[in-house]
Amino acid sequence: MGSNSSRIGDLPKNEYLKKLSGTESVSENDPFWNQLLSFSFPAPTSSTELKLLEEATISVCRSLAGLWTVFTLGGVGSKVAAASELSSPLANQSLLLLLVLANLTDAADAPNPYRQAIMSFKNTQDSSPFPSSIPHAFQINFNSLYMALCEQQTSDQATLLLYTLLHQNSNIRTYMLARTDMENLVLPILEILYHVEERNSHHVYMALIILLILTEDDGFNRSIHEVMLKNITWYSERVLTEISLGSLLILVVIRTIQYNMTRTRDKYLHTNCLAALANMSAQFRSLHQYAAQRIVSLFSLLSKKHNKVLEQATQSLRGSLSSNDVPLPDYAQDLNVIEEVIRMMLEIINSCLTNSLHHNPNLVYALLYKRDLFEQFRTHPSFQDIMQNIDLVITFFSSRLLQAGAELSVERVLEIIKQGVVALPKDRLKKFPELKFKYVEEEQPEEFFIPYVWSLVYNSAVGLYWSPQDIQLFTMDSD
Fold it and tell me: H-helix or E-strand containing 162?
């Protein structure tokens, strides 16, 4: 069966299309019907099989046509599809349809059956029975699904599907966290965040939340430091000939925080980045020297910003004393936000020192190299408690370096640090509650996800036509 022929079986092509569609108005050049006719079907071997095939084809095509009509009703415009979407249009349309169905709101008397199915499906290798409370159960090969998700994270819709599965289906989440090749999934997510300037904000959010969900698992936080990577070509700030997946993750998240501080200033992005770092902090292992440097460099940047706002507030206050008519900017709010972030960074450093000091000589080295940076926070009322351990570590190792003499090489300093870790009494480090953050959806997640999904349909669906001026669900600059 082929769309290039002017006849289909015994009928002219235009007559066959009318029979399939059940309408007189179908065009011979309609892209939807031509795509359907391009599919290959096995040749029937009897008149009975021929009749059954024809009836099944007509039924399926009319059902798809109904969906097509709903999508294209009244539409006259569209966006040019990306190359990846054009290369596999049926897969792209199917994924978009799945996301639309999964994000339908629940009926008053029944939950969304598509979301229920996504929340509960299992691996084909899982032979345990489904609970009777799950009415829409099915099984799928998790390995095939995992490999496909790893390969397709350049698109918003694939990342959104990965988020949906990780967040809503515990079977999928357990399976993925047990994989021994998590780098195949994590690296594409990190690349999305690394190229934050080129991605839309929704795609960046989804990638970041996926990382946050993964870092809720201690096993994941340990294993990522055991995976060694070589020559990460897309990371251009510095040549990384060899680095652990954990250290690379830290580098990319810190870079995202710094980008956000200077460009978008999105508190939501800040919060989730810091939450992911905090979840990992107790499990930091053998941090790459550059990752350790960037942790301290981020703290340095925050410290400078803190001092700048303090200076602005002081100058503003002096100016207001001479003029009662000039309203004061709300520096207190700015200062509060910066101090919250500084506090979180100190807690992350403290968590690493308390739980895995002996695994991270490079972080101790970075703290010693920039020890003057922490001086101003030792007596600050907002940071006094959390500074105790950091101050103790800096003082202890500074003393050992002084005893070793001047003009020490980097190698010698690291050797002294490794020896000192054994000598430092662990009971001198104050215990703090474990840093653990869990992703929770907003109370009305549909307000975010439904417009997002339909914006993806508008921007990514191949051959679907829309009237831009009639779209009200999302703004046209949300792509």
Answer: helix 156-168
Query: Which has the closest alpha carbon to 87: 155, 27, 146, 149?
Result: 155
Token reading at 193 = 């965040």
Q: Is 358 helix (H, G, I), strand (E, B) or coil?
A: helix
Which of 36-50, 83-97, 137-151 is predicted least confidently? Answer: 36-50
What confidence tier does 77 reach under pLDDT thresholds 50, 70, 90? very low
> Does residue 57 contact residue 20 with C-beta atoms inside 8 Å?
yes
Q: Are 96 and 115 in contact (CB under 8 A)?
A: no
CA-CA distance, 402 to 262, in Å (whole number)?
A: 38
Mean local confidence (pLDDT), 395-409: 89
- CB within 8 A of 248, min separation 6: which ones? 190, 229, 232, 235, 240, 288, 291
Weakest mean pLDDT among 65-74, 213-222, 387-396, 449-458: 65-74
CB 421 within 8 A of CB 68: no
One-letter amino acid for residue 358 of the chain: H
Token pair belonging to 319: 């100016």
**CA-to-CA separations, 1 to 25, 27, 328, 407, 468, in angstroms, rounded:** 22, 18, 76, 81, 36
- Kindly tell me if the per-residue pLDDT of 65 is higher than 90: no
In 370-445, where does DSSP find H-type helix? 384-404, 410-423
Q: Count CA atoms closer than 13 A to 159's CA, side-chain side.
A: 28
Give burial (CB, 10 Å; 0-12/13-18/19+) of 479.
middle
**pLDDT value for 260:** 87
Closest CA to 418 of 363, 347, 346, 348: 363
Residue 30 in contact with residue 3, Cβ under 8 Å?
no
Contacts with 38 (C-beta within 8 Å, 6 or more apart), sequence order:
2, 3
What pTM does this model have?
0.79
Q: Max CA-CA distance within the chain?
A: 99
For position 14, what pLDDT does the model report?
64
Strands 122-123 and 139-140: parallel
The number of beta carbons lying within 10 Å of the beta carbon of residue 61 is 20
